[in-house]
Structure formats: C-alpha cells, structure tokens
Amino acid sequence: MTQKVVVLGAGRVGKVIAADLSKEFEVTSADVSQSALASLSSSYPINTRVTDLGSPAAIGEAIRDADLVVCAVPGHMGFSTLKTIIENGKDVVDISFFAEDALELNELARQKGVTAAVDCGLAPGNPDFLAGFYAGQMQIHDFEFLVGGLHFSRSAPDQYLPTFSPSDVWEEYTRPARYVVDGKLVTMPALSEPEIVAFDVAGHHLVLEAFNTDGLRSLIATMDGRIPNMLIPNMKEKTLRYPGHIGYIRELQQTGKPWTPDAWKPADDEDEYTLMRINLHGFENGQEKQFSYTLFAAWDPETRFSSMSRTTGYTSTGVARCVLAGAYKHAGISPPSLIGAAPGCLDRISAHLRERNIVFERTDRV
Fold first, then answer.
1. CB atoms within 10 A of CB 63
2. Are both 110 and 147 inside the same structural domain?
3. 189: confidence class by pLDDT, cuts 50, 70, 90
4. Which of 80, 218, 237, 17 is closest to 148 using CA atoms?
5. Dihedral of CA 331/337/340/342: which sign?
6. Is 318 in contact with 309 (CB distance < 8 Å)?
7. Within this chain, do residues 176 and 298 fall inside the same structural domain, yes or no?
8. 17 near 168, Cβ under 8 Å?
9. What local confidence, expressed as pLDDT, does residue 1 receive?
C-alpha cells in the first residue's frame, strides 16, 4: 500500500517538498491559501486540503491518516505546529525556523513513540548531518559553516532580496546569535563580527560579507549532554550577504524604520543562488585533519524551483524517505546531528541530494 504523506504549508519550500514526494507517495498538501494549493494540484499528482494551520483541531483532522507529516510552516508557527503533530502521534520531519528549543518536546515525543526529525533543511540540516557523522570518526575541534541565499543582480538599497520567508529572514537579524568558544557559550547580537569572504565557485568570483546569526541551534545542546557524543569545543555559524547589507539593516533597526520586502514578488525565473561552506578541523587517530564542504546551487530552469527551495526542500525529503523506509527510527526529538550519526543515513541523504543535482564538494587541506 502506498504510504501517505501530509505536507503542512504550500509556500516556496512546501511546494518543492510536496512535488518531490509525490513521485513515490500519496501526498496531500495542506494550506490556507487556495491559490497556492491550486497551483500545486494543477502541476503535480497531489491532493490538496484548505486548512487553517493555526488551528490544532484543523491540523489534527488534516493529518489523521498520514504515515508521515512534513512541517513547512513559517517560523512563528513552527513550535506550536510541531507540538500538535506530536500530540497526534504522527512521525514528522520539520524545517520551520522557530525560536523555541525543540528538545523541550522530547519527552512528549518519546511518550507518543513519535520520530520527530527537526531542523531538516539546508542549514540547520546539512552541516549538522556532517557534524554528527564525523563526531563518530574523529575528535572535531573546530566546526564552522557559512551560508547564504542571494541574487546575482544586487538590489539597492539593501543589496538583497529574500530567498525564503521574509519574516524568517528578519528573525535572523534580530535574534541573538550564539556560538561556542573553548567549550563556553558566547552570545552576541545578530549581524555582529562581520568579515569579508571570497569564493570562487562554478566560474563565479563572489566577494561577500559574513556575520553572526543564530544558526547553530540544536548543536548548542551538545554542550550540556542532551545530544550524546557530540562535544565540539568551537562552533560558529555565519550568514552570507553582499557587502553593504549589514549597514542598511542596522540603520533600519536604529531608526525604527520597517524592513519592507513586502514588495518582493518571487518570479519563476529568478537569477539567484545558494552558497554554503562547512569547515571542519580536528584529529583522527592522532593525525590532524582539516577539510571543507562547499555547495553552490542556482535556479533550476527545468523544475523552475529556486536554489534555496530545492536545497532546503530536497534535504527534508531525503530525511522523509529515511523515516518512511524505516532506515531512521528514534522515539523523541531528533536533531539533524543524530540523523547524521545514524548508520547509513548520511549516505542515503547525500545520494538523494546528488540525484537532484545538490552536490557538496569536499576539499582536504594538508
């Protein structure tokens, strides 16, 4: 019998998730927007259901027959929606970027026997898979990742157009950033400690500015033992933007002016890209190891999906397939580092991404 998946949210990423999973499973997309659902059902073999995702009762009814739920709602709804899914006893893969600590729901998920895989997008997600995997192979001393979604055509005055939910982008700029130095938690304002970083990828020379945001998320929990065998003394995440963007956002914050990407109307042919670099340094069997993984992805003219939607959505569908195939099962909250540490899961997810032209290239440093 074909397994049933319900995708909550039919936005840019939710659309990609539903489309990808519909190749193999019976998929229902649930959202309050009739137009978004109509766009999906006209292009893919997907059932649709108009649903108030702010209503626990409506969510419960929508997911009643699901074998798996994928949660792709905006960050401000994420924690409460995840809790509702778990209360309904449904396995879930979640990508929502919420401020709350998902591990607070661990006991509830354990009691319900629910596998709840959280933060399973581009980042957090892929860096955490690698951290979990390599923590079982070596002693990681330094772990850092830089990530950004940008347009090739820079737009004045803010040098940026959102590549995902504008409200979640603004959350990145206001939520205090946490990182780890010598095993101690450091909290800094978002946008702090900017640095210029150059990348030569796919024939492009990109000069970008990196700054602190709160992207480590569940990796912070490695410090207090809530995620076992994952003690990494130095960890940091930074967001990438074009130089000049930080100054513009700081001016808005200081003057109280609103950031107004509301005029942003995503097109089907945006000239945009996603860039990530993950740096690891440590020791394996007494030998020093230092290497990095780099991802560069651009808008795909075949699927007409943006790079950020694909890199985020296909990561979550890779995890979803692991759960649906029984390759990953863990009663409780599963941060992506736990998934990366599970036997075979990183290989499965990496192969899944490569099949969709999402490729992380490894570079070793001597």
1. 26
2. no
3. very high
4. 237
5. negative
6. no
7. yes
8. no
9. 84
pLDDT(284) > 60: yes
CA 297 to chain centre: 15
Q: Give residue 177's domain range.
A: 126-305+336-365
Write the CB contacts of 248 (distance below 8 Å, at least 6 apart in sequence): 157, 158, 159
Contact 353, 318 (CB under 8 A): yes
Instruction: Give the amino acid at 334.
Output: S
Residue 106 to residues 86, 123, 124, 332, Cα–Cα distance (Å): 10, 21, 18, 5
Closest CA to 101 of 69, 76, 79: 79
Provide the 3-class DSSP secondary structure of residue 113.
coil
Q: Kindly state the tokens that stand for 199.
A: 């990348």
pLDDT in tens, 123-155: 999 999 999 999 999 999 999 999 999 988 876
Paired tokens of 325: 């195939």
Q: Please choose, from the candidates 215, 206, 201, 266, the residue with its C-alpha nearest in 3D space to the C-alpha of residue 241.
A: 206
Instruction: Indicate whether 76 and 110 sit together in one domain.
Output: yes
**Residue 1 and residue 15 in contact, taking contact as beta carbons nearer than 8 Å:** no
Q: How many CB atoms lie within 10 A of CB 286?
A: 6
The DSSP element (H or E) to which 177 belongs, if any, is strand 177-181
Residue 41 lies in a domain: yes
| pLDDT one-digit tens code per residue, 49-63 | 999 999 999 999 999
Q: What pLDDT does residue 262 have?
A: 56
How far apart CA 262 and CA 244 sit, in angstroms, is 20
Same domain flag for 94 and 134:
no
Distance CA 41, CA 44 (A): 5
Quote the number of domains for the chain: 2
Contact 331, 110 (CB under 8 A): yes
Closest alpha carbon to 279 in 295, 260, 263, 299 = 295
Q: What is the CATH number of the domain that holds 249?
A: 3.30.360.10
Query: What CATH number does the domain containing 13 carry?
Result: 3.40.50.720
Kindly state whether residues 71 and 138 are assigned to the same domain. Answer: no
Sign of CA dihedral 78, 83, 88, 89: positive
